[in-house]
C-alpha cells in the first residue's frame, strides 16, 4: 500500500506490524477503539540514521515538513510535586512550555522532562516517542493544528519507523486535550 503522505513505498496497517513497535505502542494499537479504526494507523519503515526532521524530509518527501508532529514529554511542578504530560505539536513549531503547558497543568514551573525520565516512563526510544501508547493517566496536550490535518506523521516508539495517523484519531487517545496555540 502507498502512504497518503511522503515517499514511502510500503505502508502497512499498524495492527499488522505489532512486532515492529515498542510494547506500549503495540498494546495501544491492540486495544484501539473509536470512530477511526486501528487499520487507518499506518506503519512505515524508515532509516533511524535519517530520523532528524531536516534529513528525514529530504529522504522521504518535502510534503512531510507540514504533516509531521513531534511528541515531547514535559514535567510540571507545583508545591514540590511533579507531574508528567505529553505534548504533540507540528514539527515546524515549538511547544509553549512556559505558557500554554504550564497553565494547562496548573503548574508553577514546567520544563521538558529529562531524557532518562522520558524514555523510562514511556517505554519508548528517545527520538521516537509517540502519543500512541503513553501512560493513560498522563494529560496529552494536542495542538489544534495537528488534529486538523488529514494525516500526521509521528514516531512509532522507536527511532526506526514512523506512524501515519489521521489527525482526528489523536482525539481518541486517553487524556487528550486540544489547545489552540500549544505550538508556536
Automatic annotation (TrEMBL):
Signal sequence, renumbered to the chain: none
UniProt-recorded Gene Ontology molecular function terms: aminoacyl-tRNA deacylase activity
Annotated YbaK/aminoacyl-tRNA synthetase-associated domain residues: 53-170
UniProt superkingdom: Bacteria
Pfam family, one: tRNA_edit
Protein name per its UniProtKB record: YbaK/aminoacyl-tRNA synthetase-associated domain-containing protein
Organism the protein comes from: Streptomyces hainanensis
Amino acid at each position: 500500500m502507498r502512504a497518503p503522505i511522503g515517499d514511502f513505498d510500503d505502508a502497512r496497517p499498524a495492527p499488522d506490524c505489532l512486532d515492529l513497535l515498542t510494547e506500549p505502542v503495540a498494546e495501544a494499537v491492540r486495544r484501539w477503539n473509536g470512530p477511526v479504526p486501528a487499520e487507518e494507523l499506518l506503519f512505515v519503515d524508515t532509516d533511524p540514521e535519517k530520523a532528524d526532521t531536516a534529513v528525514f524530509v529530504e529522504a522521504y518527501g518535502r510534503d512531510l515538513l507540514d504533516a509531521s508532529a513531534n511528541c515531547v514529554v514535559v514535567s510540571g511542578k507545583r508545591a514540590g510535586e511533579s507531574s508528567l504530560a505529553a505534548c504533540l505539536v507540528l514539527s515546524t513549531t515549538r511547544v509553549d512550555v512556559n505558557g500554554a503547558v504550564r497553565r494547562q497543568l496548573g503548574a508553577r514551573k514546567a520544563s521538558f522532562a529529562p531524557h532518562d525520565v522520558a524514555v523510562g516512563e514511556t517505554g519508548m526510544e528517545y527520538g521516537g516517542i509517540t502519543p500512541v501508547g503513553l501512560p493513560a493517566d498522563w494529560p496529552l496536550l494536542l495542538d489544534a493544528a495537528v488534529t486538523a490535518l488529514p494525516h500526521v506523521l509521528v514516531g512509532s516508539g522507536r527511532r526506526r519507523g514512523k506512524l501515519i495517523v489521521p489527525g482526528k484519531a489523536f482525539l481518541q487517545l486517553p487524556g487528550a486535550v486540544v489547545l489552540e496555540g500549544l505550538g508556536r
